[in-house]
UniProtKB/TrEMBL annotation:
GO terms for biological process: negative regulation of translation; translation. Keywords: Ribonucleoprotein, Ribosomal protein. It comes from the Bacteria. GO terms for molecular function: mRNA binding; structural constituent of ribosome. This is Large ribosomal subunit protein uL13.
Amino acid sequence: MTKTYLTPPLEVERSWYVVDAADQRLGRLATEVAKVLRGKNKPNYAPHMDTGDFVVIINADKVVVTGKKRFQKVYRRHSGRPGGMKTETFEQLQNRIPERIVEKAVKGMLPKNALGRKLFTKLNVYAGPDHPHQAQQPETLTINTIPGGTR
């Protein structure tokens, strides 16, 4: 009887990738990044293990959404106190903290458990074109999403 081979966690090879989010659509970018973080693009993928790679996203301030989402999409957060809910639109959050938009989109596509929280730590998002991960020699990952959208 043959058994399925699982790579031991210490033998999983991890790569670093850089993704340029300039003029990319938010949802399509987030799904591809979530696949790489999860390790679904590798032959040794296992749903219960962390086999994914590290991803650095640059130019998060230039990500776009289509239609009226720029003005109608709402991001909510709560302080935990009564009446502590704060809401802001995509455009307001992009002006204030553009990294958070991409982080929330990717985090929503990861598992909602301890594995998902561990995978999320391998995501690094930066608003501009510079990042401090040059020492890891990241490869450029081209994501073929549909560019553009309404600005």
